[in-house]
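Sanity check. The docking grid for zinc ion depends on where the pocket ends up, so I'm generating a full predicted complex first rather than guessing from homology. Inputs follow.
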Amino acid sequence: MCVFKKEIEGKQIVCCFSKTDYLVDKILIDNEGLCIFHSKNEAWKNENNFIFHLEKLICYFEEDSTQKNIFLEDIIFTTSIDKIFSDREFKKDIKFNNSKFNVNLTFKSSRFKNLDFNSAIFDKPVTFSDLSIKGIMFDNAAFKLKLFISDCDFFNGFFMLNTHFDGGFSILNSLFHSNCFFQNIITNMDKSIHDAIIFKNIEFKDFTTFELSEFNSVVDFKNIIIYKELVFHNTQFNYDEPLPIVSSVTFSQINIKEKGTLEFRGISDNKMFNKVQNVSFVGEEIDGKLFFENTDFTKFNLLTRKRLISATKKKNAKVVIGIGCIKYYNQTPLKSIEISDDNQSLVIELCNTFVDYFTKNAGFNLGVEFVSKTNQYINFFYFSDEDISYEKFENQLQKSEQAMWRLIKIDNDNLSAQPPKNHLPSKIINATDTIVNLLGLVLKIGSRIPLGLISKEDILHLVNTTLPSNIRPNNAIMINQIVLFGTKNTQTIKIKKIE
Ligand SMILES: [Zn+2]
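Predicted complex below; grid placement will be based on this.
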């Protein structure tokens, strides 16, 4: 009797092979008391023709109608079993759970029902090619080297939960007819080897999700057809080494069919793609939807980014950039201004005035994006695609803001302009345009005061918080002056001549 024992939820499990009557003779036991299937003694197993016994065991399970599965759990495989599992059709599910494969494993040109490899350990490369498989599970399995799948059909589910890879894995020319779950997958690869995760020429016909996974290697999805839903949710792409030609993450020739969606959903404190050097997204064909949330778009090159952003603005847009995405090289934190609907146009006007002034004054681009609006508040941020550090971006925003506020002055109930001296005509005209916009804005605020449409608090809030760095106007009493100006409603504007 084999001494193999394990405990599951407090229950002692003993060797089941000793109990089966598959052998006419008594089961072989090694000098540690373990049967030929549980034995770790490779030489002894070979001497005693392990393969012969395995084949006999499989036949027993196949032929006995009382057996639902081919039960090969907890077996230690020390010699190649490739011949047994190639060019063959299996009519029952095969359970390889908790088995350990100390040899290369290659299954070729076979038809399987369900294959379970839960908690299996693969010490050597694993190759599955030209297989038809009902369903397959690799939950809690560990691959010490590569997994290579090609030309396979998976009809009833593909599951990898808590699966670890020390080498890469590639899945090529395969069809997933039903659900696929890749959850808590961790790939720890030697960065110098560049072992990649590759999905190439794949059709995902049903719901597929990559969730809570960590890809510490190069990832390449190429020529993928999505019929239903393919979701990357809170999955980390961590390969941060610079690569000479390819990107650390590539999505090329992604074809999203009419009822299909491809979703990238990061989380607010861990944006999708935030850790990689760059992401290549090329040659997509979208008849369904491409959706992003909490995604760092700055990892796409400028052309891709512009293509995707402009696609969101089309009628019946097929690309949706949802909340929390970083779309630009630099962008300020989201601002939320609580202000009534009547006065929101003033916020928008001040934002746009600053953006125009900044672009011409600082010499690089700036934009403002209004994210959401309700009757009570307005949300927006400033952004720039200029390739500069965030510090420089912030510093330039501050400087421009100060310079802009210096352009106007209110005192003695008079609004006056202070255009810059000795500047290029283009700078002067920029300043003049800005002055006109700012004075117009002050007049608009002023005209709302007697009508009771805006309070002093609203004005303070508007002037002090709309612009990116929140620098108060240079004239500390300007806001009071605006209020006074509005109250007195003298509407006198004096603009000094430009010298
Ligand atoms: Zn045993």
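Relevant for the grid: The CA atoms of residues 93 and 465 lie 65 Å apart.
Also worth noting: Residues 2, 4, 15, 17-18, 34-35, 37-38 surround zinc ion (CB under 6 Å).
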